[in-house]
Amino acid sequence: MGILGKLKSIVDFGFKVLPDAPPLTERQERGLALGAVYAAGDYLPINALTTAGDPHTAAKILDQSWDVNDAQSARNTYRYLLDGGHRDLYTCVRGYLNAGWDLSRADERARIEQATREIPALAMQRGQRPDVALNYFQSGWQYRASMQWYYPRRIIESIAAWDAARVVHVSRFIVDAGFLDAAEAWAAIDAAVQMARPQYPSWAEFQLGFLAGRVFWAANAGFDGQEIDADYRRYTSGGKSLLSKPDSPWLRLAW
Questions:
Q1: Could you report the per-residue pLDDT of 7-29, keeping only the tens digit for each?
Q2: 84 burial type by CB count under 10 A (0-12 exposed, 13-18 middle, 19+ buried)
Q3: Whose CA is closest to 168, among 196, 198, 182, 188?
Q4: How far apart are CA 59 and CA 32, in angstroms?
Q5: Is the peptide bond before 55 cis (omega within 30 degrees of 0)?
Q6: What are the Cα distances from residue 25, in Å, to 30, 48, 150, 214?
Q7: Which terminus of the chain faces fewer neighbouring Cβ atoms within 10 Å, N or C?
Q8: Residues 32/60, Cβ–Cβ less than 8 Å
């Protein structure tokens, strides 16, 4: 999931298709579409719940990027993503990040001071660690322009798309590694669909939620601005392909 391994240049975000993949039910296709931005951006099969890689490689990626190394840790990861993920922390700080981009220095300082005073108590009310919530605000402040709707300009309300897309993405590796069977993975993906669909009216806004969530995560994970900008462009391009190419699942399936 780390950005450093994702900055290779892809000229055309074409969709990788496994010609011999089992046909998907409509429900499975809809679930898989939640993770299509990863499939487009990382050139993974868009029509199958697999990375098309070997079990050893899948297990290594899960261990290094997700701290998943068996069935129980895989289920714990599902529970984290479905029950709160990054969206709970985002809810704590979103209102404070929802500031103009042309603030005077005095206004910016006042906004940051207010957030520093108020976020810890808000985080405690919502069952989050105050120091963690405050760190997410501080790291996300300079990237708040990337967490916005195109029009009108305001911070996007939900990053449920980020957590939902990761359910699909991690499921590919979990199934490939043999930690859980496909049926259990599809059940988690069904739950991700139910979690994400009420939050957005369209695939276009789902994509914005994914991008905002990824920036929110990356800024706090210690990546520098150049890495975050390159990663943002990468997944923006993948999303544009999904919103425009005729073979995209986002165009075949109404939100």
A1: 443 334 469 999 999 999 999 99
A2: middle
A3: 188
A4: 21
A5: no
A6: 9, 11, 33, 29
A7: C
A8: no
In angstroms, the Cα distances linking 116 to 88, 93, 219 are 18, 10, 18
Question: Read out DSSP for 161-184?
Answer: HHHHHHHHHHHHHHHHHTSS-HHH
Partners of 229 in beta bridges: none
Alpha carbons 20 and 238: distance in angstroms, whole number: 24
Using DSSP's 3-state secondary structure scheme, residue 226 falls into helix
CA–CA distance, 167 with 236 (Å, rounded to integer): 19
Residue 2 has pLDDT above 60, yes or no: no
Beta bridge partners of 148: 155
Q: CA 57, CA 65: separation in Å to the nearest integer? A: 12
| Lowest mean pLDDT segment, chosen from 1-15, 66-80, 157-171 | 1-15
What does the DSSP 8-state code read for residue 16? B
Q: Would you say the C-alpha torsion 233, 234, 239, 240 has a positive or negative sign?
A: positive
Q: Where are the beta strands (DSSP E) in 61-182?
A: none
Query: Do 194 and 167 contact (CB within 8 A), yes or no?
Result: no
| 95-134: pLDDT as tens digits | 999 987 778 899 999 999 999 999 999 999 999 999 999 9
d(C-alpha 41, C-alpha 231), whole Å = 10
